[in-house]
Design brief:
With 108 residues, the chain is mainly α. The chain has helices at 20-30, 38-44, 61-68, 76-96, 98-105; strands at residues 36-37, 49-51, 58-60, 72-73. Strand 2 (49-51) and strand 3 form a beta hairpin. The radius of gyration is 17 Å and the shape is globular.
Length: 108
């Protein structure tokens, strides 16, 4: 039985985006215009479940926005700066749970 020859694929491997990087990509894909309110952001983004870690755990955009108690954002940088701690807290909380630890051990 012969071994397969190495693949000559020059494309970069798939990267998993989560947290602010995933949200930033969705904002760009949706073409969100600023200033924007929380309600407008949720309405304009199709997939509002944002991955918060590489294991696939998610946090809904509306829940993340509720945690920061701010309804209007003048630009994307302000929004991402406010939401960054929320996604980091969620990532840390999920990784410390028993289920989170088991999920990290099992490849998918």
């Amino acid at each position: 039985m012969a071994a397969r020859p190495p693949q000559r694929d020059s494309s970069e491997p798939d990267q998993i985006e989560f947290g602010i990087a995933a949200l930033d990509a969705r904002l760009s894909d949706a073409g969100v215009q600023f200033p924007a309110t929380s309600g407008e952001l949720v309405a304009e983004i199709d997939a509002t479940e944002i991955p918060c870690d590489a294991s696939g755990n998610t946090l809904s955009l509306s829940e993340a926005l509720d945690r920061i108690h701010q309804d209007r954002f003048e630009n994307k940088t302000e929004l991402l700066d406010k939401l960054h701690p929320v996604f980091e807290e969620e990532r840390a909380a999920v990784s410390k749970s028993v289920f989170g630890r088991l999920r990290a051990l099992i490849p998918f």
